[in-house]
Design goal:
single chain, about 290 residues, alpha/beta, Rossmann fold, 2 domains, seven-stranded mixed beta sheet, two-stranded antiparallel sheet, 12 helices, 9 strands, globular
């Protein structure tokens, strides 16, 4: 079952849109378009499902895409997609009211994900996220879309890098775009990749907007599994760590981000590519022999 929620232009909507064009143009909209151009996120003929959870990031993403249609150099289409996994009535209403206020025409479809994972004891948040992603891909494809856009931002990226190193013993990042493994022909894109969370919060507060923090039933009832509580705690720890490091080095955030752009494979013990491990010893002696011949 899906529902169409239309957004009508209002004075408040005009003010919100003006703030993106004026006050927050440099910090938000310019970085949004830079990510799109740098990582080639939007191409001619795309039909993009902008996935809206009701939080500040995804709602801003929707407004940025609407603004982009005023300046687009390539032809593309948008679908503003909300999946209701079993929200409380008040949370569903908040999403719909914000969409009307901001002039975002929503397509809402319902699932029973919250009910499905509610009794799961081990990693329900991980399972929920996987299921939500799958439903979004499926609905987007049903609507004729070839891409889904998510609202992950710059801070999500650098926190993921550090979490992987400190807690996962691996170097990896949250990619700006990905080909779907289970939905051939579909891609996931992250156009807020270069936008700072602090600027998103400033935009929200400047416009007096109130979005969902987390509408998850587990959060509402404080019944996260131990592993999910640990993951949430680890992300908070990483946020705090970065903030403390920044006091000593104002460039620490950009250095973390750039570290995964400047990987020198000649100084890496081992790395994985497409599931295959490549170790420096595989070519170590061969490189020495090649140097001797020269």
């Amino acid at each position: 079952m899906s529902e169409r929620i239309e957004g009508n232009v209002t004075e408040r909507q005009a003010e919100i849109e003006k703030s993106l064009r004026k006050k927050f143009h440099k910090d938000i909209f310019s970085r949004f378009t830079k990510a799109i151009n740098t990582y080639e996120l939007v191409k001619e003929g795309d039909r993009i499902a902008v996935c809206i959870s009701g939080g500040k990031d995804s709602m801003l993403l929707a407004k940025c895409f609407q603004e982009l249609t005023r300046h687009r150099k390539v032809r593309f289409e948008l679908e503003f997609l909300v999946m209701d996994p079993g929200y409380a009535a008040a949370n569903r209403q908040r999403i719909e009211e914000n969409a009307r206020l901001m002039g975002i025409p929503l397509t809402i479809f319902e699932t029973q994900i919250f009910n499905t994972v509610f009794e799961i004891e081990k990693n329900p948040c991980y399972l929920c996220a996987r299921m939500r992603r799958g439903h979004l891909y499926a609905k987007a494809r049903e609507l004729g879309c070839n891409k889904i856009a998510l609202g992950h931002h710059y801070d999500d990226v650098i926190e993921t890098i550090l979490m992987g190193m400190l807690y996962g013993a691996q170097i990896q990042t949250m990619m700006p775009k990905l080909h779907s493994t289970h939905f051939p022909g579909m891609e996931l894109i992250r156009p807020l990749y270069l936008v700072r969370e602090a600027d998103i919060k400033r935009w929200r507060d400047y416009n007096g907007l109130r979005f969902l923090q987390c509408a998850c039933r587990f959060t509402e009832q404080s019944e996260h599994s131990k592993s999910d509580r640990e993951n949430l705690s680890k992300r908070r720890e990483i946020k705090h760590l970065i903030a403390e490091l920044k006091k000593q080095n104002p460039y620490v955030e950009s250095n973390i981000f750039k570290s995964v752009e400047n990987v020198n494979l000649s100084t890496v013990i081992a790395y994985k590519k497409e599931g295959v491990v490549h170790h420096f010893l595989d070519t170590y002696d061969g490189l020495a022999e090649a140097d001797e011949k020269q």
